[in-house]
Amino acid sequence: MLEQLQTIISVGLLIVSMLTLITTVGYVMITRDQSLTSKGILETEIRKNIVETRLRIIEYANKIPDKLSDNEKESIKLIIESLYEDYRNAYEDACSKYEDKKIDRKRFEKMYKDSIRQLVENSVHKEFYSEPQTKYTCTLNFYKNFKN
Length: 148
Known about the structure:
Number of strands: 0
Strand content: under 5%
Order of helices and strands: HHHH
Shape: elongated
Number of helices: 4
Structural class: mainly alpha
Radius of gyration: 27 Å
């Protein structure tokens, strides 16, 4: 009688363990899918942010009149510098998400390797990526890893 009771308890514990395992596997699969969805949303936001900052520069540049006073030239220069800073910040934000492994790293490398190289090597931006004073460390780290 005692042996039968122990067997029933063991079978019951086995069933509970199996149900727990099944529940855990289901939860892991749901969480994995949500994680992939979150990465996809982040990647879309990154792309959108970079494109929008680039478009703002182009849009503003097209509105600059041909003849300007010195004061107007200085104001425009400050505005363009601010727009360029937004552009560099968009890439820095993207590269920080890459470093933190919040996005698909292989896809990011494929999509942004060339544009980041062009950004860092561009004469307009080059001074902002000089070490040790650069505030764009994530972008510079990415660039160094994929320079060639």
